[in-house]
Amino acid sequence: MGDITAPSARLVAPARGLLALDQPGASTVGMLREAGVPLAGGTVQEFHDVVLTTPGLDRAVSGILLDPATLHRVTGSRGTPGLRRVRVPIGVRMGDENLRGFDVAGSVDGLADEIAHHRDAGASFARWRIVAMPETATNELRARARLVAGWAATCTAAGVTPFVDVVAIPGPRDGVHEASTVHTAVVRTVLDALRTEGVHLDEVVLGSSIVNPGRRASDVATAEDVARATLRGLNAAGAADLAGVVFTPGGRPDRLTAHLAAVQWLGPRMPVGWCLGRSMLSVVAKAWGGKPERVLDAHTELLTRFSSIGAVVRSGIGEDTRRVAG
After folding, report:
1. 14-27 confidence digits (pLDDT tens)
2. Among 30-39, 95-104, 146-155, 228-237, which is the least confidently predicted range?
3. Which residues, in sequence order, are bridge partners of residue 125?
């Protein structure tokens, strides 16, 4: 288990979650349109500022993820005033699935410069996402894992915490047991690559999708079933050596709170947190509606929802009821 005093430990602070505001511009525009927000040239930037200037945000979240453009805009000399008062780690999105074929060996210098650029702008952690589909070939997954490992090593050398976000998507008919097996294999592949690259796992935060059955699975999994399958897979993959694990909904944001409470009740072997993005932001955008007089409504919606999840998660932490999932 990682050192609880290390910077990476702040990302998995008890009963707090990461706020992912790092969606690409087109995705944010689509979300705002669905929320009924009138769109204009600066609407995305205005929405980001509404979120980032929420009073008390530092008491509700353990970190904020931004896209590179927003990071450099809001942390510059003319950046969002409220953000400079928010004493939480700021992260930046870097890699994603659009970078297939990116040559790590031939681009380390470029990565180092980019990471240093973000670090100097105020980023203390960075996210790179790997998505494994049912049809993803083993060789392709290993190649992506090597890419991420090289990036993570460059991050740690620059003093930036790597947040390696692994999403393992089960087959449509996979039950929770089959989904857990897939999840374990994907996470183990990534962690093995990190070790091979010489990255110390206690300096890495892992993003992990919750193990959910496939959409057309015949069995019904309770929150405890899902939590046990998720923790069992992570333990088998060696995740206990990490600084912590941040859970993402895995396509089921409506069930994340129940799953998180069950995970905490089972007594995980590593510090855990959670990360919410579009599913949370869409509700905030709807409360805002693009109207200045409803900014307070948006702030209240954001804080209430994060605080509510935190309260449920805290209720799952009890020394007298904990059971370790094996």
Report:
1. 678 899 999 888 88
2. 95-104
3. 91, 161
Contact 111, 151 (CB under 8 A): yes
Q: Which two tokens stand for residue 214?
A: 């496939």
DSSP 56-84: TGGGTEEEEEE-HHHHHHHTSTTS-HHHH
* HSE toward the beta carbon, residue 277, CA cutoff 13 A: 20
Q: What is the rounded distance in angstroms from the CA atom of residue 43 to the CA atom of residue 37?
A: 9
Task: State how far the Cα of 120 lies from the Cα of 117, in Å rounded to an integer.
Answer: 5
Query: Of 135, 246, 116, whose CA–CA distance to 187 is shortest?
Result: 246
pLDDT digits 0-9 by tens, 264-295: 888 888 888 899 888 899 999 999 999 999 99
CA 105, CA 111: separation in Å to the nearest integer?
A: 10
DSSP state of 9: G
Element spanning 43, H or E: helix 43-52
Residue with tokens 């805009």: 73
As a whole number of angstroms, the distance between CA 196 and CA 204 comes to: 14
Q: What backbone phi and psi angles, to 5 degrees, belong to 247? A: -90, 140
Residues for the chain: how many in total? 326
Element (H, E) at 163: strand 161-168
76: left (phi over 0), alpha (psi -120 to 50) or beta: beta
Sequence letter at residue 186 = V
Tell me the pTM. 0.87
Task: Report the distance separating Cα 181 and Cα 219, nearest Å.
Answer: 16
- What residues form DSSP beta bridges with 246? 207, 273
